[in-house]
Design brief:
The protein is mainly beta.
C-alpha cells in the first residue's frame, strides 16, 4: 500500500487549497478513505472520511461547510478541498486507509495558514 499526498502550501487566511492523495497497492474503490491532520503539540485528528463509492462523507465539526472530501475511483485518488482556511487549520495533513485491519499513512503534506 502506498499513499502519496500533495497540494499543501502556505496560504493566507480565507484562502483555499486542494489536497490530493494518490493511492496504489490495494483495490482503492473498495475502501473508505480518510484525511487526518496533526498540528504541532497536538494529537492527530480525523478531518474527513468518504465511503468507498463516495456517496457518504463525514467531517469533524470544525471544518464542516468549509472542507469537501471527494474521490475519483478511476484515478485512485482522494481529494480534500479546503476553503475559507483559518490559522487553526495549520497542520500536517495525512491520507489514511485501513486494509485488513492495518492502517496505512502517507508522508503528509504541510498546510500553513498565515498572513
Amino acid at each position: 500500500v502506498q499513499l502519496v499526498e500533495s497540494g499543501g502550501g502556505l496560504v493566507q487566511p480565507g484562502g483555499s487549497l486542494r489536497l490530493s492523495c494518490a493511492a496504489s497497492g490495494f483495490t482503492f474503490s473498495s475502501y473508505v478513505m480518510r484525511w487526518y491532520r496533526q498540528a504541532p503539540g497536538k494529537e492527530r485528528e480525523l478531518v474527513a472520511q468518504i465511503s468507498s463509492t463516495g456517496g457518504f462523507t463525514i467531517y469533524t465539526d470544525s471544518v464542516k461547510g468549509r472542507f469537501t472530501i471527494s474521490r475519483d475511483n478511476a484515478q485512485n485518488t482522494v481529494y480534500l478541498r479546503m476553503n475559507n482556511l483559518k490559522p487553526e487549520d495549520t497542520a500536517l495533513y495525512y491520507c489514511n486507509v485501513v486494509t485488513y485491519g492495518n492502517p496505512y499513512w502517507g508522508q503528509g503534506t504541510q498546510v500553513t495558514v498565515s498572513s
